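Work package 3, deliverable 3.1, input record:
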Amino acid sequence: MRERPPALPPRVRSHHRVSSDATRSGTRRSGDEGSVLALRSARTKPNPRPSASRISTRQRSVASSRQSPRPRNRLLVVLAVLIGVLAAVLTQVGAIQIAAKGVELREEGARQWTRTARLSSDRGTIFDRNGEELAMSVPASTVSINPRLITDPEATLATLMAILPLNEDKVASLRNEMHTKERGFVYVARQIPTEIGAQISGLRMIGVNVDPEARRVLPGGDTGRSVIGRTDIDGSGIAGLEMQYEDLLTGSGGEVTRQVAPGGRSIPGTEEVSRRPVPGDDLVVTIDRSIQFSCEQALINQVSRIGAKGATCVVMDTRNGEIYAMASVRRNPESGHVEVSSGNFAMVDADEPGSVAKVITVAAALDLGVVTPETVFSVPWREQYYDDLLSDAWQHPELDWSVSDILVTSSNIGTIKIWEQIGRERHWNYLREFGLGEPTALGFPGESGGILKNWTDLWGSERVTVSYGQGLASTSMQLAAAVNVIANNGVYVEPRLVKSVIDSEGTVTDLPPSATRQVVSAKAAGQVRDMLIDVVCVGTAKEARVGNFTVAGKTGTGLKAQPNGTYLNEFGQRVYYASFVGFFPAEDPQITLLITVDEPPAGSRDRFGGTAAAPVFARMAPTIVHERNIQPPENSVGCENR
Amino acid sequence: MLPENLSQRRQAARERLDLIESAPPTRLTAWIARRTGVPVQVARPTGPPPVAFYVIATVVVVFVMLGLVMVLSSSAANAVGSDGSPYRIFGRQVMWAFIGVGGLIAGAQIPFERWRPFVTPIAAVAAGLMILPFIGGIGATINDTRAWARFGDISFQPSEVLKLALLAMTADFLTRSAPKLSDKKEGLLPLFALSGIGTGLCLAQGDFGSAVVLGSILVAVGFIGGIPVHHLAGLFGVGAVGLGVLAISSPRRMNRLTSFLDIRGNREYASYQTYQGFLSMANGGVTGSGIGGSNGKLGYLPLPHSDFIFAVIADELGFIGSVAVVGGFALLVWFGIQTALAAPNRFSMLMAGGIAAWFGVQAVVNLGGVSGLLPVTGLTLPFFSAGGTSLFVMMTASGLLLNVARRAR
């Protein structure tokens, strides 16, 4: 600027001229070309032309000086660049914070620092028909550790071992976890009594947690456990009704979320129950705990006494299909003791029903009218059918037997004669109508539907043996429901295990009653019933007689097909399956009862339905009569005149 | 009458001038005058300061106070689980803020003429201080950068001081050789020497970010000062080549410099910090998680109180807070440049422009790193990041800017 000659005319003296002058006259350093003082003094000069004063007094700063290049432009470039980059930064930050990308990142961040824990809901109780608990959840404590927070493993272990019964393997694995610190959560003991849990939490050891966790218990011990099933350690049903009604019993679990710092430390104040747990519904089943118990005890006694492998029993209400008891016992192969089995073999095992199925054949023939109870057949003791020489259980001359006689004596050949009157397809249809060949309406987990080949698929002598219960298989439940048709005036009623459901607010919802269907006429059912009374009074089931009541029933002595395809096991012995299905009071049936004994010893007299199964019926009946308050009808005649 | 009148007026003006020149000095300027022996002749502003003065002062005050809050918020969680006090970092930052207030007032009050003759020795001392981190016993290395000297509990980062000293020295030489800048020997060469020494010292400490900022602001001042653009382009080229050589020479540095191109892909290691910063910022949304509400600072996000304090601010104050911070820097740059545009003389224009550019460049390098637009360089966010020297020097620089703004016309 100093280089610029002061060539401007005096009237338009520009400020930088003024400043130059002032600089020269002032004491400023030579490097300073702008002088505030000079400019200010210049500004104080009165201007004779006020209209132009705005222009002349508007001081141009040094940045706007006309030197080349002008700093003003370059400053503005710097300004523009920096503002532009800052705007770009803000745009990017905005994209991260509020745009769609931000939502994604936010979720990812939440995943990183949010932990969700399940809040278990209280599992519903399973009640018997009288409101007694069969299975319930009780409060318990679960002890766990966070190995990362444990500073003194040995001291912690010693304390835990002093209170909890920990085996050596468990101690070793806990010690390993505490030293490696790889996991943040390890169970020490689950579902221990709450008092012990309180004792441990009272010690306030860092890294040792005691949390409430319910334990599933069966207050009745083993009673009914085959049917009730069980839960795993986490409280999920894995068998039986616990499994079948898992969704109802569980309710909906709640959720608690919390935020954690790296390492898993909770951030105070972030714990939040995001979903409240809803307790599960209670289940009221049709089981009567007392009948169930007596059933199981009777089976255990009988199986123990005769040395069989196992037994099942079904006690059913004749009219509405409710199951009062369903028991399975098995000999424990290790200890040799007979115990209530965890599997419900009354529904999951299917065996050839044997002679009990003759009831269906006879009822079908009577229903169709192809025979009457008095129709007489000439029955030899054995006869060739297809490839096999079939025979009755005992040798007898060829005799004229009525239909009734055939059923009471349980003649195989006689039953075939009756069956021949029906025809194969119609007989098969009746078997289906009686509920064989498909699972019952119970829908029990693992329930078997039995084996009933289509009539066109039967081959060889199978084609005729189905008439007396060989060549097809049924579960105990199916068989009881089938014979119940006779007791229930020809009407099939579906079995029923669950009466009602009680939700968490106490509202009771009854499940729909069992469906029914007429299978044979009431007349035909009555005729068969009369024959079945004779079976008990004078036939094969005399040991099933019960005091004041008239009992009707049918024994069965089936042979179990072996894995080798024959009815002989590896020792060359027949393997029996003894059964008895009966109902009483015969005049007005209320209870239908089935007993099967699995593999009674082949050589003993107890291998037959009449000797292995029927006596159990007689032994159980008093409890049922008492529990269900059953009175003998006035017209009861028992076995007189038979 | 007229000439007489005119001479009377001139006399009145002169008296008025004397009045102004002999206006009572402030206590500080009088003290300095006594110490230096230079007579007090201060141009006192006659009117109220312009808008820029108030805007800059307000932004700086708000930034420093908000910065203290955020340093406390983001550093306190570090103390959880240790024996340290949650107020340790905050306490030191407060102490430096008080010292910084002194620096700010001194910068605003002391006329540039008082210290301008000494810019060269000041810069030499500042360069000398750069050796401190290498002296055994007091030198300290943080994150591979040997940029700190420790005196007891107080650490000192000489590179921050160097930035200001070299800025002043550059402004001074650009003022003195203003007419001859188109001559390479008068303009480009000294600028090249100064920026070369500065960036070289920073790089010797391993402080890549400071080197970039120092180089940028010196080039910016040279640009403003009038060094021909094609000269600067040469300097820029040398810088770019040097940068490239440095990057290629170390695969690890190369990785650091390129990982920002794929932050998601490198989120497990190379871009872990940036990615965690993203998660924190995204967590803030529009309105933020509230002061103290950030989860990233609990250990997910490394250095939440220094390099990545902006991520914590964006998390806890939301996009509103981000706009405030970035907007605040934009205001500083805007009114800093306005101050330079209205500066009363060339030196103060260059100082104001350089300081405004400095604030802008350092904010951009830091925020660009946090937001994933640029590589992460380990540079502080001015006024916010924990780091006493940085805060003190930034506040002093704000004082210098205010000094110019007060006298701007």
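Confidence is low (pLDDT under 50) at residues 1-58 of chain A.
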